[in-house]
Amino acid sequence: MKRLIFATHNAGKIKEASEMLGGIGIEVVSAQDVGIVEEPEENGATFGENALIKARFVARKTGEWALADDSGVTIDALNGEPGVRTARWGAEEGKIQNPKSKTQKGARLEESRLVDYTLMRMKDVPEGKRQATFHSVVALVSPMGEEWTFEGIVPGEIALIPQGTPREKLPFDVLFRPLGHDRTYAQMSDEEKNTLSHRGRAFGKLMEFLRSDSNFRS
After folding, report:
1. Is the CATH number of domain 2-217 3.90.950.10?
2. Pairing state of beta strands 66-75 and 131-141?
3. What is the DSSP code string of 77-96?
4. Which of 70, 124, 182, 190 is catalytic?
5. Global model pTM greater than 0.85
6. Any bridge partners for residue 155, and if so which?
């Protein structure tokens, strides 16, 4: 089985990627699984730039095929916030502490506060005016330094209240309702979410590439 090292310590993302790529005979392991505990600074101006920063870092460290994703939500009523700052939004404003620096229990508490912070910022935005878009860019880097990116975009809206069971390290799942659906990501099964989510769409493009790329299969 071919192996890809996912440049993340996010168990939720590893689970999603394993479910999607396992079907085409690809094993997904985390950076931590191969002994990489440090993370590069994500200082890119776009989702694509940040995804490439992470994938390049792991590919250089391991000499293996590496992938990374950078995802986030842009909220129309907040002028596109949080965007590429989604993972650290709230912490930068001093409203919450960085979930990455917390224990699992502490991280979940901060993620809950992030949801509360988002709803507070949108307290005066009525239903029908809460449009948002989830973006994901998956970057693939070969041991030789070749690079590819694959993008997935899902329009939707921010719910008035949290709905559904939150997934680990995916706090916006309880708020984001994809266009044409009456349930949030958190109210959907993993399989259903993967078929229509921003990350699922980006990974779908990645899967088509991996199926056909002879260099990866060799």
Report:
1. yes
2. antiparallel
3. GGTT-BGGGGGGTTTTTTSS
4. 70
5. no
6. 133
| CA-only gyration radius of the chain, Å | 17
Secondary structure element (H or E) that encloses residue 111, with its range = helix 104-121
70 is annotated as an active-site residue: yes
How many other C-beta atoms can be found within 10 angstroms of the C-beta atom of residue 153?
14
In sequence order, what are the residues at sequence separation of 6 or more whose Cβ sits closer than 8 angstroms to the Cβ of residue 162?
Answer: 115, 119, 174, 175, 186
Distance CA(197)–CA(153), nearest Å, equals 8
Measure Cα distances from 176 to 9, 134, 142, 183, 187 in Å.
Answer: 23, 8, 33, 8, 10
Q: pLDDT by residue for the chain (218 residues), tens digit each? A: 589 999 998 887 888 888 888 888 899 999 999 999 998 998 999 999 999 999 999 999 999 999 999 999 999 999 999 999 887 787 766 665 555 554 454 456 678 888 999 999 999 999 999 999 999 999 999 999 999 999 999 999 999 999 999 887 788 999 999 999 999 999 999 889 888 889 889 999 999 999 887 666 66
Separation of alpha carbons 39 and 21, rounded Å: 23
Instruction: Parse the chain into domains and list their residue ranges.
Output: 2-217
